[in-house]
Amino acid sequence: MVYAVILAGGVGSRFWPFSRELEPKQFMRLIGEASLLESAIQRLKGVVSPKNTFIITNNIYFYEVKAQVAKFGIPDKNIILEPLGKNTAPAIGLCAELISRFDKKAVLVVLPADHYIKNISNFKKAIKKAIACAKDNFLVTIGIKPSNPSTAYGYIRVAERLSTIDYRLSTYKVEDFLEKPSLSNAKKYFKDKRFYWNSGMFIWKASVFLEEMRKYLPELSRQLNFIRSVKDIKKVWPEIKPISVDYGIMEYSRKIALIPADFFWTDLGSWDALAEVSPKDDSGNISQADTCNLDNRGVAIFSKADRLISAIGVRDLIIADTPDALLICDRGKTQDVKKVVDILKSTNRKERLVHFTEKRPWGTFTVLRDSPGFKIKLIEIFPRKRLSLQRHEKRAEHWVVVSGVAKVTAGNKTKIVRSNESIYIPKRTKHRLQNTSAEPLKIVEVQTGSYLGEDDIERFEDDFNR
Fold this sequence. Notes:
- The chain is an alpha+beta fold.
- The protein folds into 3 domains: 2-269, Spore Coat Polysaccharide Biosynthesis Protein SpsA, Chain A, CATH 3.90.550; 277-336, no CATH class; 357-461, Jelly Rolls.
- The chain is 21% helix and 32% strand.
- The chain has helices at residues 36-42, 62-69, 88-102, 120-134, 183-191, 206-216, 218-225, 233-236, 245-250, 271-276, 337-346; strands spanning 2-7, 53-58, 79-82, 107-112, 116-117, 139-144, 155-161, 172-178, 195-205, 256-260, 265-266, 286-288, 291-294, 300-303, 309-312, 317-321, 326-330, 357-360, 363-371, 374-381, 389-391, 395-403, 406-410, 413-417, 422-425, 431-434, 441-449, 458-461.
- The strands form 7 sheets. It has a 6-stranded antiparallel beta sheet with strand order 18-19-20-27-22-25, with no helix packed on it.
- It starts with a strand and ends in a 5-residue tail after the last strand.
């Protein structure tokens, strides 16, 4: 049986400020109406069934993943949760172990969740060729013919073709996996027809991959052997050392084959990668915002903020605007956005973590004003959802219903609060907010008190087991 393993645990730091640690790029709709994760699942239609599609992600993304994959019929039990990101080798190894427990002959199609691919028909043909090759005990990867001497990707050097029959006609034996090169080396690789970009797409038998893991990553193999079910992950995971599948296995294995991609591919690893696939005007400018451009060339403007952006006489810039953060970056420096995120992390800036609008399993909230002594939020609760039964030690809350109907529990009383009505929740009072209708509920919340942090919350009952 063929199974898909979609890697959806990355934080996407090079897409800051759109991507945040609690809302990474794989869940965003960067191109078209589907998120990158949804697109990755859609591409597999007719190749792997939804019941055989597994998503591995971080614990903190469970409800976002659940919401996005439900429409495809992927069951909750197929969402595998890492307590902490440990890079690709442990993530793939974990899925291989779990799937091989119930299917010893499983073939895994391992795909990152953040790719953008055109010509889906050719993509499916390549995956089907790779599955046939994997059944002959190869570790198969999809190679991308370089379109430029990029330093953003790892490279793969191939040797001779495997054969001149069936799927092997366009399949090569792999000689080397090479890390991201210097520009001088990238230029050499670009001119040499033996080199391909490493797409990070892999197809192999779970049993063959686990054999290679035992050979080249014996300690990881031993640790993963202790995981008999998802309940064991939390016990084992803290001892596992992070390592990529490229460094840990692919650089050493002698069983690797490459199938060249006959389709357009980018991993959307940076703002420049998004700019590459976005529509441009005659001057090479990209405008996905309310803009006023005068005499600009090669300027890409992206915005999630509700304001006009004007640029005059500038060249080769990325401008990415959100309500709480603005990025202005030279087109040749987009790989360095991660360094900005590292600085934000070291200085404990909240802009690396969340947007003004934060997602929750029950809905969203947007901070409209945050000042000493008070905070104002716009809260939206999805139909038929409710917040936890909770109380706050240091703050009181005043709720005004903007639209919809709220069912409010405060102490021992329950009250229906309608549009243009309000209710006050004193501090240290147990309370719960619920939307019992089929329409979204919107309220304005005014918090007052000596401390207004999100951690001032004591939960007594919670539908989401937080």
